Structure prediction request, 1009 residues.
Amino acid sequence: MVRRYGYDAEGNLRAVSDGQGRDFRLTYDAESRITSWTDRNGGWYRYTYDERHRVTAGRGADGFLDCSLTYDDAARVNTYRNSLGRTTTYRFDERLQLVRVTDPLGASTHREWDENGRLVSWTDPLGRTTRQVFDAAGHLIEVVRPDLSSVRAEYDEAGRTRRLTDPDGSFWSYTYDERGNRLTVTDPSGATTRHRYDALGRPLSVTDALGHTRHIETDPAGLPLALTDPEGRTTRARRDSFGRVTAVTDPTGATDRFGWTVEGLASWRSFPDGATEAWSWDGEGNLASHTARNGAVTTYEFTHFHQPTSRTTPDGRRYTFAYDTELNLTGVHNADGRTWEYAYDDANRMMRETDFNGRTLTYTHDAAGQRTSWTNGAGQTTDVTVDLLGRPRQYRTADEVTTYEYDSAGSLLRAANRDTTVERTYDSMGRTLTETVNGRTTTYTYDALGRRISRRTPSGITSTWTYEATGHPQTLSGTGSRLRFDYDTAHREIRRTLGAEAVLHQSWDGSGRLTGQSVTTPGRAGGDAGGELLQHRTYEYDPDGALREIDELLGESRRFDVDPVGRLTAVRTADREERYGYDRAGNLVTSSPYDGTAEPQPHHVDGTRLHRAGRTTYAYDGQGRLIRKTVRLLSGGRRTSQYGWSAEDRLVRTVAPDGSEWRYTYDPDGRRVGKQRLGTGGDVLEETTFSWDGTRLAEQIETDGTVTTWDYAPGSYRPVAQTVSGGRERPAVNRGGSDPGDTDARFYAIVTDLVGTPTELVSADGRIVWHRRFTAWGQPTGTPTPGPEADCPLRFPGQYADAETGWNYNYFRYYDPETARYVSADPLGLAPDPNDYAYVTNPLLLLDPLGLIRIRGQRGRWERDPNSPVQAHNRDTEYPGSYRQSTHDAMTAAWTDEGIAQGGTPLRPTGQLDPQGRQIMERIPRSELTWRNSAGEIIPSNQLTYEHLTPVVDHWNQTGYRSDRATRNDFYNDPDNMEPMTRSENSRGGALMDATYRQDVDPTLYSCS
Prediction:
């Protein structure tokens, strides 16, 4: 049984039972009005009505979402008072269309409707108006934004979108077949993607703008069963009778299997190596537990309206969450007994938070809810000014002003602060063509699919990429050298030709994990005869997937221990041991020297801040930023370093123990663009200038003219090449970007580990000229080998080593490898991690390229492009947005006079004959049909819309929000669960039904990685 429905004698739905017999119950009064519901976890809500059947009060368990409603019929004003006593008013016009909403702080939003009940404008509390324009058929043809820019749409005779034009004039165009299937999509650059379908409208293939075709095999329901890439490699899926994927087999034959609950929730997954992970759910579809591959269990508890109340990690640490009765999060209690508190204004906007260490941040907002200022724990205030579209135009602090300018498409054209001016140009797709920072220009070109094909840095170093038909990188060329990438049938890189004199070979297991790397001279593959083996590294994993051992030719064998939550606890070699211990708040509290010569050093931590480690003490400002580090020497003396910070939490000044002073500058995006060593009079003695490729460091120019340039694997923070040119004995480079004549440039291929940390530099003549020697947390353990010919300052992905501090610059923060933690709090607060100073739990498998949030490494595989826009996943993005032609056919057959009369989809003759002399028929346009609702009333064609019935809402809330697109689309297009009605009656979000749509999607389906 999937669902069972129970009714009373009056036909009222009394209970909905799930597959385990758990009931969602409803009660009614004598007039069949719902008086209460009780969910499967025991949560409940009750309703009170007046004599006109209007809800006058709502009562929730423990007071959650209690409310009262009053109605002023004469003034057409309704008032809603929430559980905290805050009032929102709603004013309606004579047609009972909502025209004004006033929030508890008195800010009003106004709406305007046309004679057909269509929303034509809304004005926010700041007076910014957005307008909508419709054509005679009721199609939305233009949206005019507050700055008078507009987005326009054109439709074909069947009401399908034919063209979308952006504010800058660029447009997307679409064509369709006679069944309504989309045939082509042409983007603003003119690149066209083509789609083919079978006679039943099921997809057959997709051909990209370069002519590469992917073929699709589907089941009778149109759900994909096999996908064959342009090179003939096929990935296959199996599905159960509900259309859910039960197995996926990649081109190598490796199979992942999936199990589901009766309700359609993920139950378990087995990997090709036999390991499994599992999930369990409570009666309302909330995640109750997750069992990892190693058997470690994380449990969750929830309270009213799906709000989580606790999370218990596999090592027994318990975090609890508190809320006010309006479901605002008011406190997070950690396993160490500390609380992170949040406070809100009457409009439920956060106005204050106090962290585990007592640091308080405050926020102000304008009437439209936009943040206008924030003050950090050190008392530094940032004021923000926004434009008519809500984009920041200015940030102002006590020390500097940062300004922003945009083009008509919303792309950032120019940004400037005290030290830096950034200017950008774009193509019609919004891709960056040039970026000029203080006169230094980086240029980019792209192919028809939007892939980067070339980059020229400010020093004149050009790199060029080519790609396979599958989209994977094929070659990287530049500075007289060339890398070539080769893959197995599962698209895993197995061979990289490092110029003419060296080759990197890689091997993988059935679960897609990197198991071996060998650097050889040509003619040798792994252990085969012929050629010289320069480096060999193997990776071994436990059955649960944890990394067990790394063994390498140039280094030593290292074995790793982890605790139940995956934190690194020990690294063992033949002659030394690193040991690490943690407290209940996740702080690293003991660590041993890398050479194993002494007992582990105790760390004194208060809250989440480190105050003492061995003979070193640390002091912080009110914002929690490290401002002083003092090392007590064995002689009794002290070595003190001092640090200064801006209001944006950027390190701007360092004074070393020897008195040397360093200054750091940043662009408006927060990227560090320069560092300078200053003399006693403030004159610059030494300077390094940095250039960027999005959020990745692309180039540095040093005082002596030495230029170092880096290239990364597309879509990742994994460096693949380093080029060095110029210097004291080489031609100097023009910092303005003139061609250096790179005949003298030295090229090095970069070999990286599982997460993308550089491990070796390989010269163009086939020598390993640099080899990484660091502890597990990145602390140097000696001079890099084999010698000083070359160095690589890149550390963990996204990090750059600063010799003057011993820290690694990590974009938004600085990481200290000596203490394995950041020196300032995470700007994102608690969202990424319960410990706001911690680095990742295991740097061998996880990375944090921006100093913000950890992501899982791809075990040596290509990763998502870090510079592409972040994709949101919620009901707006994941819920299907259009109906199939078959759905329209079924609706016209069931709900129009013409369809009922014809007994099917209403057709009319075209006046043309086919080769057999028969009349060719065509569908009667929906706008010309006579539509009726469930009450038999005629629906004007320009007001026609479809309303989903409650089962569709239930499906989304219980199953659809965490299912795949195909499954959601099938249910969305089920004509048995929808009916036609006017737009003004349509209950967007299910608001007029017993249930409403939840707006989130299952977080286990989408992640930052």
About this structure: The helical segments are 875-878, 885-895, 897-902, 950-958, 965-972. The chain has a mean pLDDT of 90.
